[in-house]
Design brief:
about 180 residues, 6-stranded mixed beta sheet, alpha/beta, 6 strands, about 35% helix, Rossmann fold
């Protein structure tokens, strides 16, 4: 579905279910240069188990219009504007990497509007590879390729590329046995 936020169309994947204001809502926030698709499995599961799901494409990412946020604070303001545009008084926020920082900042700015936080790939300080930073300035296409490689590891066979954390299912035990051996 598309939602107008700050004058730009924003895409939100709903997990295949229509938005129902009577249900609790979770907003999934992706990391830099990703889109809603990193949350496909989690979105579908929660949408089919009693939740409204808004797996968003941040502005300037995926199917959303507008300019990409230039800071965590700008992105948090966007998430709060999204809640207001949808008429959502309170939502759970789930963020991955940069999205986890956005979720934390939104919760700090408007704690009454955030019921839960789920943070995946969160760290402080959030270190970014110097090579990725250099590529993002001087070779954006190379930076996009690097993020795609980092985001879709080949350490595990598919469905590892279907979303954050899916590598935990199945082959992680075998991998851990090899690591610990």
């Amino acid at each position: 579905m598309y939602i107008q936020v700050n004058g730009a169309p924003v895409y939100a994947y709903t997990g295949g279910k229509p938005f129902d204001p009577a249900k609790p809502t979770v907003v999934f926030i992706h990391g830099v240069l990703n889109d809603h698709s990193v949350w496909i499995l989690q979105s579908r599961h929660l949408a089919h188990h009693g939740w409204n799901v808004l797996a968003i494409d941040l502005p300037g990412h995926g199917r959303s219009g507008g300019q990409p946020p230039v800071s965590v604070e700008d992105a948090a303001d966007f998430v709060l504007a999204l809640l207001k545009a949808m008429g959502i008084d309170q939502a759970a926020l789930a963020g991955h990497s940069f999205g986890s920082l956005i979720a934390l900042e939104a919760a700090a700015r408007a704690p009454a509007h955030v019921s839960h936080l789920a943070l995946v790939g969160a760290a402080f300080p959030m270190k970014v590879s110097p090579a990725l930073l250099e590529a993002s300035v001087n070779a954006p296409e190379k930076a996009i390729h690097m993020v795609n490689v980092f985001s879709h590891s080949t350490l595990c066979p598919p469905p590892s590329a279907l979303g954050p954390g899916t590598w935990l299912y199945g082959s992680s035990r075998a991998l851990m046995r090899r690591v610990l051996a």
